[in-house]
Each structure stands twice: as structure tokens, then as C-alpha cells.
Known about the structure:
single chain; alpha/beta; Amidase signature (AS) enzymes; 39% helix; binds glutamine
Amino acid sequence: MSLSTSTISALRQRLQAGEISAVDIVEDLAAAIAAKDGEIGSYLSQDLEAARTMAAQADLSKPLGGIPIAIKDNINVIGHPCTCGSRFLASGYTAPYDATVTELLKASGAVLFGRTNLDEFAMGSATENSALKLTRNPHDLSRIPGGSSGGSAAAVAADLAIAALGSDTGGSIRQPASHCGVVGLKPSYGRVSRYGLVAFASSLDQIGPLTKSVDDAALLLQAIAGPDRRDSTCLNLPVPDYLADLNKGVAGMRLGIPREYFGEGIDPAVREQVEAATKRLQAAGAELVDISLPHTEHAVATYYIIAPAEASSNLSRFDGIRYGKRADAPKDLADLYQRSREEGFGPEVKRRIILGTYVLSSGYYDAYYARAQKVRTLIRRDFETAFGQVDAILTPVAPAPARKIGENADDPLHEYLSDIFTLGPNLAGLCAISVPAGSVPSGEGTNLPVGLQILAPHMGESTLLRVAKAAEIAR
Ligand code: GLN
């Protein structure tokens, strides 16, 4: 069996049995990448020499000993580029330190070898906003992989990575996982340190795993979760054993079906697949409970005020002086700032900065930003009420399967609306996962994967993974 198609769990067994070496895995991945990544475009950079050295020295007794993990290119790995898919950082920025998740992966024995493509500064849902590369969906090369962690999802789906890290501010792990047919987990806000993740919207961002199985998602989460003094929003709570409850099944569990997530706007073929997945969990012993999350329709407007507001503030650090790009021959300081930003940022990033600056400006702050924060509280309360009645919630991930490349090029609003099902969990700080549910025919001879989204309460990752595993087994 080819090593690049394996899961972490399978490779761990074979490594420990002495059947294969960690260097064998790197060589196998290198060959797969050389053969296929030309057409898929999932990686922005690789350091296979460093990977061979890390693999040769890997301590196989550690939890991820000898396992290669791909990393989204907005997470710092010391000495390596971290482009964020932007021209701003592509010209000469090298990470001067390791993100906490990078340190933890290294301490777990993982082999870090490649950086995956993303929408510029993680703003987008298709990876088409990357200023550096086009990434294609491995199931249909004429389509997007989803985004913003599209490179990570495509690499895992095409067996060009064993597993990968992504980041999720409003769906960027779950939506590409759904579109590419892999597992993608957004941890609860505060479960995983954000230190060393280039900030997009700090009250929403979380780093999480994209994997080929639910077991692997649990293994990778186990490695990266936990308190961190360097991120004040990372909670000082012990990390449970995420594998302990994984196989306990859903018998007797109450799973909520929110009516607002199955109504208007969803592609009927997608709805059918997601409903079939919920029925399989019912057959496995869960009770399906109709619930309501009445403020769902406000999630898009709320998110697209709060996220750009935070982005406009976070991205002010890119001034042409401190990081990456610097405009040539500036007339004066203002010209240096202006032209560096004008030349360094792409159109979607500029749109967000303008929008964010506007909603925070005096006279508009109360009408937009302050009001959005109030609606955010209502959305959070919807979930709190629901979790008074159910253990977990089942929903679609995206209203439609992966669209064609270039299709919404001039319609950002349409793109924003397609995030409707993934934004709420970020606004409420919940944990959420996308697991493959089925596929729908594209009408052109390809089958497009569709994910089931499972939501659990804040810090409820054990429950989340348990339901996800049951969904995976029942499929
Ligand atoms: N698609 C959403 C956006 O463009 C979410 C992105 C993300 O989660 N990083 O903002």
C-alpha cells in the first residue's frame, strides 16, 4: 500500500512495527507531490531536505513520531516563509519564531515539510483570493477546493499530505474539508493557542486539523490543544483524552436538527445527502430533535461586520516598514505606507480593510460594530438554549457543493452568503467539525463531496468527535 494514502493511525502502527521508516513516508509523499501537485496546486513551498533530516531523527515513541504534517501558510514555522497567500509577505518575510502549534507538533515528533495555499490572509471561501497560486479540487479540477484552507484540504484529499493544519475564522477548515471530502475540525475558541497564527479576526480565529479520518483529527487535536501563556485568549483548562470516548457511539444521544439550516437557499441534492447522514445517526441509536436557532439569518451580516473590523485593525501592522513588502523610492513616509499597502494587498483584503475601517469609524461604530456585537450575543444565546435540549447539532456545511473556478469572481456578496452555515459556531465560540457525508453528481461526470457539520458546546470536543466517529462508521 502506498504510504501517502494512509492515515496517521495506520502509519503509526507500521512505524512502530518497524515495517517502514519515517524517511520512507517523506519519500513517498515527495513522489506523490512531484507527480500530482502540478495540477492541484496545494503547496506554496516545501522543504523536503529538512523533512528528510527531521524524519531520520524522529522519535517514533512520541504521539506523532515520524508523521509528516502540512501547515497552512499563515502559521509561523521558524526559518521558513509564511506568505499568508499575499504578495505583501511573499517578498522576503521569514518567520522569526515558531507558532505554539508548531512547537507542539515538533515536540510530538511530527515532520514539518510543506506549506499550503490559502486565500490571502485567510479571507475567502475558495482559495481563489490567493495572490500566489490557484488550487484545484482533486475531485474535479475545474472546481474550487473551498477556502480559505483550500491548500490543506486539497493536499489531504489528493494524498499529497497525511494530515494538515488549517485555520478557521468563519468556516475555513470545515468548508474546504466538505468540498474536498476530508475531515476538518474547528476547535472551541480558546482550546488551541493562536500564538504565531497571523491574525485575521482575533475573536474568531482558531487553528485546527484537516485529516483523512476522525481518529486522526482526535490525534492531531490532542497534540495542539492546551493552555499557552503567550495567548491570553487560550484557556487554562486541562486537555481531556480525546481518544477515550471516541468509539462510544451515539446510542441515547440527543442530536438537534435546526430548521433554519435546512430551509431556503440550500441545494436540494446537498440537503438530501445531509438528511441521509442524520438518519444514519438515528439508525445508530441517536434521537433526532427538531430545534430552532432563530437568529441564524443574521449570522452573515454580523460576521461580515465583526471580522472585517478586527481585520482592519490587525492588518494595520503591514505598513511597509516592519514586515515583507516595502514600496520602492517613496516620496515620504505617507507615500511609503500608502504604496506598500496599495501594491502589497489584493482586492479582497482591501475590501475588508475599507469595510472594517468604516464600521469602526466615529458616527458609524454604534450603528454597525456595536450592534453586531449585540446580535453576536443573541446568536450565542440561541446555541446555549439549544444545548440545554441536545448534546450536539447536525447541519449542512455549505449550501452547495464546490463551484466552478472563476464563477463568483465579481460577486463578493454571493460568496459571503455561502458562509451562512459555518459562521455561527465561530461567533458563538463553539467547536465544530465537517465529516464526509456523501457526494452529489456535478452533471459533468464527476462526483462532488458533501460534508455533514456537527456542532457541540464550547469545550465539547469529546462529544463532537464521538458523534463524528459514529457518522464516519455509519456512512
Ligand atoms: N469565508 C470566510 C471569510 O471569507 C471565512 C474565512 C475563514 O474562516 N478564515 O471571511
